[in-house]
Write a structure and sequence with these properties.
- The chain has 453 residues and is α/β, with parallel strands linked by helices.
- 28% of the residues lie in helices and 22% in strands.
- The protein has 14 helices and 24 strands.
- The strands form five sheets. Strands 1-2-3-4-5-6 form a six-stranded mixed beta sheet. A six-stranded mixed beta sheet has the order 7-8-9-10-13-14. Strands 15-19-18-16-17 form a five-stranded parallel beta sheet.
- α13 links the parallel β23 and β24.
- It is globular.
Length: 453
C-alpha cells in the first residue's frame, strides 16, 4: 500500500507518559494500538482522516490505564486483538506467537515478548514480506525496558529474565525496523527521561544500555536497580483490564453540587479534591480537602493518593475543563465522581463555612527550618538540599508523623508540595510552608550547595 510515516499517528498522553497509535490502513479503515479509555484524541484523529477504527490491539494487560479496546468495539465495531495467554473475559481475537491478522493490505504478526507482563505481545507490522515497524508496548522502549515487578515480588526476577530474552528477540529484527513503544518518558512503567518516544532497532542496538549488557544476570541486576515506586492504583488495573471496562453509552459528566452537598459528602467519608492551581488552594480551601492541581499528571496522583471506592467531589476555578477531570479519572477507573462545587470556593465561603490557608512562599521568603523533600527517589538522589528529610509523596500519608515540625515542604516546582501539605494538614499538621519553586531556588536563596546521595 506504500506505507509511509504519514500513515502512523502517535497519540501521546503526556501525563501517563504513554503513546497510543492510530494506523491508517489505506482503505478508510484504521488500526488502534494500546488506546486508553479516554478516546477523545483518537476519535478526533480518525475523524480528521475519515477513518473507521476496524481493529483495536492491546500489547498487554495495562496497569496504568484502562484499555479503550472494548469501547472501540462498541463505538466502531472494531475487532479486539490481544494475547490468548491473557485469558480476557470479553469478546476478542486471541493471538499466540506467530499468529497473523490480515488488515487489508498490511499484516499484523504477534510476537511473544513476556517480561513487563507474562502475556505480553509485540506486534510486527508488515507490508507483504517487508517489516515496517513493531509495536513493542512495554518490552523494548527507548533506551530501556519496562518494569517487571507489577505482578508481585515473587514474579519479578522471573519476568526480568523473560524481558532479557524478549529484548534480544526484538533486537534481531533488521536495523531499519521502526520501534513504536507504548511507554515513554514520564511513565512509571520505567521509561527514562528524554524527548524521543519512537526509535529504530538499529538505534537501540547502539544506544540502549540494556542491550549492551554481557549476560542475563547483569541485565536483571541493572533492570531491577532502576525500578522506583509506582502509583498504588497499578496493583488492581491489570485484572480490571482482564475483565474489560464496562461500555460507556453516554459521556460521563460532573454535575454541580452546592456547599451543603459537599459538606455532607465529606461527613459521609467522601473526599474533596481541589483541582485549582496551587496558589489558589493556598489562598483558601475547604478544610480537609486534597490539593491535586489539574494538569497532565492529575490522573497519576488521583490514583496514587485516593482509593477508587469512595465518592469524590471537586473544587475548580473558572475556566478549568470539567471534562478533562472526568476523563483523567475514568481512564484509570475512578468513576465515583459526585460532582463539582458550583461557584467554587466563593460559594463555600458564602454559605458560611470556614476556609483554611497554607503558606506558599518563594525561596527567598521561606523561614529557616527543616526541609521536607517529597520528590521521587531518583529526583532526590540527583540533587537535594543538604539535611533534607526525604519522604516520597506517595508514601507521605502513611508517614505523616515522620514529617518534621515547621517544615518547608518542597518538590520541583510547588504543585506536588502543595499536595503534600494538604495530606499533612489532613493529618493535623498545620505548621508548614510550601516552597514555590524547587531545590535549586532554595539553595540559591539560602547560599547552599545541592548534594547527591
Amino acid at each position: 500500500m506504500g506505507f509511509t510515516d504519514d500513515h502512523l499517528v502517535p497519540l501521546v498522553d503526556e501525563g501517563l507518559g504513554n503513546s497510543a497509535y492510530l494506523v491508517d490502513l489505506g482503505d478508510g479503515h484504521a488500526l488502534a494500538v494500546d488506546a486508553s479509555r479516554d478516546l477523545r484524541a483518537l476519535h478526533a484523529a480518525a475523524r480528521r482522516r475519515s477513518l473507521r477504527v476496524a481493529y483495536a490491539a492491546d500489547t498487554h494487560l495495562h496497569a496504568d490505564f484502562l484499555s479503550g479496546a472494548v469501547q472501540l468495539g462498541h463505538d466502531t465495531g472494531a475487532a479486539v486483538l490481544a494475547s490468548a495467554a491473557g485469558r480476557r473475559a470479553f469478546a476478542h481475537t486471541p493471538l499466540a506467537d506467530g499468529d497473523e491478522v490480515d488488515l487489508g493490505g498490511l499484516t499484523l504478526r504477534a510476537v511473544e515478548t513476556p517480561g513487563h507482563t507474562d502475556e505480553h505481545l509485540s506486534y510486527l507490522l508488515l507490508d507483504g514480506a517487508h517489516e515496517l515497524g513493531v509495536f513493542t508496548g512495554g518490552s523494548l522502549i527507548v533506551n530501556s525496558a519496562a518494569r517487571t515487578d507489577l505482578l508481585g515480588p515473587d514474579r519479578t526476577q522471573e519476568l526480568a529474565r523473560a524481558q532479557f530474552g524478549s529484548l534480544r528477540r526484538l533486537a534481531a529484527l533488521p536495523d531499519e525496523v521502526a520501534v513504536w513503544p507504548t511507554h515513554g518518558a514520564g511513565s512509571f512503567c520505567s521509561a527514562p527521561t528524554g524527548a524521543d518516544r519512537t526509535t529504530t532497532v538499529g538505534d537501540q542496538k547502539r544506544a540502549n544500555p540494556l542491550l549492551a549488557v554481557p549476560d542475563e544476570d547483569e541485565f536483571v541486576r541493572r533492570l531491577l536497580a532502576s525500578l522506583g515506586s509506582y502509583p498504588a492504583y497499578f496493583d488492581g488495573l491489570g485484572e480490571r483490564n482482564r475483565h474489560g471496562p464496562h461500555v460507556l453509552t453516554a459521556t460521563p459528566l460532573l454535575p454541580p453540587l452546592d456547599a451543603a452537598q459537599v459538606r455532607a459528602l465529606l461527613a459521609g467519608g467522601g473526599t474533596v479534591v481541589d483541582a485549582r492551581p496551587a496558589a489558589d488552594y493556598a489562598a483558601g480551601h475547604i478544610p480537609g480537602s486534597l490539593s491535586i492541581p489539574l494538569r497532565d499528571q492529575f490522573a497519576t496522583w488521583l490514583g496514587w493518593l485516593l482509593p477508587d471506592d469512595a465518592p469524590i467531589a471537586f473544587v475548580t476555578t473558572e475556566g478549568q475543563d470539567l471534562a478533562e477531570i472526568v476523563w483523567q479519572a475514568y481512564k484509570i477507573g475512578y468513576e465515583r465522581l459526585a460532582g463539582h462545587l458550583a461557584g467554587g470556593i466563593g460559594a463555600w465561603r458564602a454559605a458560611g463555612h470556614p476556609a483554611s490557608r497554607t503558606a506558599f512562599l518563594a525561596a527567598d521568603r521561606t523561614p529557616p527550618g527543616p526541609y521536607l523533600d517529597i520528590r521521587q527517589h531518583a529526583e532526590y538522589t540527583a540533587g537535594h538540599v543538604p539535611g533534607a528529610v526525604h519522604i516520597e509523596l506517595g508514601d507521605l500519608a502513611a508517614h505523616a508523623a515522620d514529617a518534621p515540625d515547621g517544615a518547608v515542604v518542597a518538590c520541583g516546582h510547588g504543585e506536588r508540595a502543595m499536595t503534600a501539605a494538604s495530606i499533612l494538614e489532613r493529618a493535623g499538621r498545620t505548621d508548614l510552608t510550601v516552597l514555590s519553586g524547587g531545590p535549586t531556588d532554595y539553595a540559591t536563596a539560602h547560599r547552599l550547595r545541592l548534594t547527591g546521595s
